[in-house]
Design goal:
This protein has 411 residues and is of the alpha+beta class. Among the domains are: 79 residues, conserved putative lor/sdh protein from methanococcus maripaludis s2 fold (Beta Barrel); 82 residues, Beta Barrel (OB fold (Dihydrolipoamide Acetyltransferase, E2P)), CATH 2.40.50; 104 residues. The chain is built from nine helices and 19 strands. The chain has a six-stranded antiparallel barrel with strand order 2-10-13-12-11-14. Strands 3-9-8-5 form a four-stranded antiparallel sheet, with no helix packed on it. The protein is extended, with a radius of gyration of 34 Å. It starts with a helix and ends in a 13-residue tail after the last strand.
Length: 411
């Protein structure tokens, strides 16, 4: 029994000693190894407010419930009043005929372009290079999944290939014959489809969107003027059926969300900010259009944008981040910031093999870093001013050891 008790004690003591030795060794290495340095660089910190809300526009659904529709406008495209936005076909055969005529028209345009360039010797010499560039452009569009850009790049590449073919063959009557034949085919197709299609036109000048979601008459700029937090919570779409989409008036759009009251205490109506919206590549400039009255600890926030309407023409229920503040400075590790004997805040930097203290002013503290700017330096000589001014590219020292100006670091 006694031997068993001793063994039990050893089993308890040995792991404890192992842990103590390990941490002792780590502490010794931490204080004796050469100083660790990291590079200072320019950085922008953002204070963000996460939002979940709706994009609102002054829009109108274009009534159309026909199944055989061909849209003729791109998402976010500007359209004049009375101009065609879609074509409605009476039968599948009529739609197929029009699609065939459109494909032949594209070929005709390519042939005419090839004919124009056939006798241009200088242009012919550049064709190989242009074709290589066209292939690269087409591959990039395919990789990005941008089908509109893919179609444009494909059409341009076909035109280049035709131009190259006829430039080296010298054009001739063969090209003229093919153009005449295509013109005849297109005319025959158009004639056979005459009267089997009708146009859907824009009711007013504005921006086209191919989607109608039922919020068009529920979420309006006028509704935002009196909407409450309770109203926002019960927003729901109306039934809608349109195979054509909607038209948007003007250039303004809005974003509305219900937020915690304390999160918007520093905001004021008319304040200009940036809104980062999911799916949009750049932050969008917005103005605080309205701050609703407090309601159960929440307030309605309405933002107004007057640019990038085409980028938000299809968006509705959308998460976003409101950029409340952007702070630019020099980024340094938080544990590199020191206070010297005189009570001055700064960082120690390695210059060659020596250490120099550079005063800084704290702008912002992140989780593991600080943003700083060089503090005011009282120096009579220009060389001293340069020496003690922190700049991007400097090497700041991250070390628990005591430092002093002019100290020589160990190798």
């Amino acid at each position: 029994m006694k031997n068993s008790s001793v063994i039990t004690k050893l089993l308890i003591i040995l792991p404890t000693l192992t842990v103590l030795v390990y941490f002792g060794a780590q502490t010794w290495r931490y204080f004796t190894e050469p100083a660790v340095v990291t590079t200072v660089y320019e950085y922008c910190a953002e204070q963000l407010l996460t939002l979940n809300g709706f994009v609102v526009r002054d829009e109108e659904v274009v009534a159309c419930s026909e199944p055989l529709v061909e849209l003729t406008r791109a998402e976010g495209e500007r359209v004049a009043k009375g101009r065609r936005i879609a074509t409605v076909y009476q039968s599948a055969e009529a739609l197929t005929t029009e699609q065939n005529a459109a494909a032949l028209s594209a070929q005709l345009a390519q042939l005419r372009s090839a004919k124009t360039a056939a006798n241009d010797t200088e242009a012919a010499l550049r064709l190989d290079s242009e074709i290589e560039d066209g292939i690269v452009t087409l591959r990039a569009a395919l990789a990005d999944g941008d089908y509109a850009a893919t179609e444009d790049a494909s059409s341009a590449l076909k035109t280049l290939v035709l131009r190259r073919e006829y430039a080296y063959r010298g054009g001739g009557s063969d090209l003229d014959g093919r153009i005449a034949a295509l013109e005849g085919e297109i005319a025959a197709l158009r004639a056979s489809a005459s009267g089997s299609a009708s146009a859907v036109t824009a009711p007013f000048a504005g921006t086209y969107s191919a989607v109608a979601d039922g919020y068009e008459r529920v979420l309006t700029p006028a509704a935002l003027e009196t909407m409450t937090v309770a109203d926002f919570a019960h927003v729901a779409p109306e039934p809608v059926s349109s195979t054509v989409g909607r038209m948007i008036r003007g250039e303004s759009w809005y974003y509305v969300a219900a937020v915690q009251e304390e999160a918007v205490q520093k905001l004021a109506e008319g304040q200009e900010l940036l809104l980062a919206v999911s799916g949009v590549d750049v932050p969008l400039p917005v103005t605080v259009a309205r701050l609703g009255a407090p309601d159960g600890g929440r307030r309605l926030l309405v933002l107004r944008g007057t640019a990038y309407l085409s980028s938000v023409s299809m968006l509705r229920a959308q998460s976003a981040e409101l950029i409340l503040e952007r702070i630019d400075g020099l980024r340094v590790p938080k544990n590199a910031v020191r206070i010297d004997e005189a009570g001055q805040t700064g960082v120690y930097c390695r210059l060659g093999r020596q250490v120099w203290f550079k005063p800084v002013r704290l702008l912002y503290q992140g989780e593991d870093y600080c943003l700083v700017l060089p503090d005011e330096i009282n120096a009579k000589r220009e060389s001293d001013y340069i020496l003690y001014t922190l700049r991007a590219g400097d090497e700041v020292i991250v070390s628990p050891r005591a430092m002093e100006n002019g100290k020589v670091l160990e190798q």
